[in-house]
Amino acid sequence: MNTDDSVGTRLGQIMEESVRLGRTAWAAALLYVAVLTAAGVAIDQLSVTGSGDLLASILSFALGYVLTVGLLRGGGFSHDGSKRGFGSYFGLSLLSGLGIALGCLLLLIPGLVLFVRWSPAYGYLMAEDVGVWDSLVKAWEQTGAHFWPLALALLPPVALNIGALALYALGSDEQGATSVPVSLIANGIISVAGAGITVVGIAGYALLRDRGEELVEIFA
Q1: What pTM does this model have?
Q2: Is 2 helix (H, G, I), strand (E, B) or coil?
Q3: What are the Cα distances from residue 136, in Å, to 122, 125, 172?
Q4: Domain count, the chain
Q5: Rounded distance, CA 118 to CA 131, Å?
Q6: Which of 12, 41, 188, 209 has a CA positioned 20 to 30 A from the CA of residue 165?
Q7: Are 17 and 1 in contact (CB under 8 A)?
Q8: Residue 173 — very low, low, confident or very high, per pLDDT cuts 50/70/90?
């Protein structure tokens, strides 16, 4: 992306790349949405909290990794899908998640800024030979001039998550139980939003990554 372009132009580039990546990794995205939706409905209907939430978290990490690898492989950024394994992916998820959560607890805005600025970090971690912390640093450095296009691209999935939470609040009874239709729609929305955030993050990486080494290989 070029900083000389308008926010709208750069937003369009991110959305176009997101659509392209989504098409290349449609099977992984479908798996992500289907499994997490089904798991969420089962947890709601069985009314299991502790063990159910743990299972949902494990599935979310595992399927997020599969989706990210699929996006990187399908997008042509890594022939084998990743230079890093699940452990690195989990470490980045944990570290960035804690940072974003802490930022939101302190004053909300810092957490939202970190959420946007760190969104391409998974691409740097898994497609390039950098570690967890370095991937966050690279993402922070590269997104400085592109905060608003990325923020606007991430707005739809974030809005979907908020809508799903509102649906839960409106569709739950006094005991907090939800019907199958409400649970299915809400969990489906949350799963689609999660996949969307992942796709936009990799699209951001695709447009911001350094192509220097790639060009050297082409002209060598």
Answers
A1: 0.89
A2: coil
A3: 8, 8, 38
A4: 1
A5: 14
A6: 12
A7: no
A8: confident
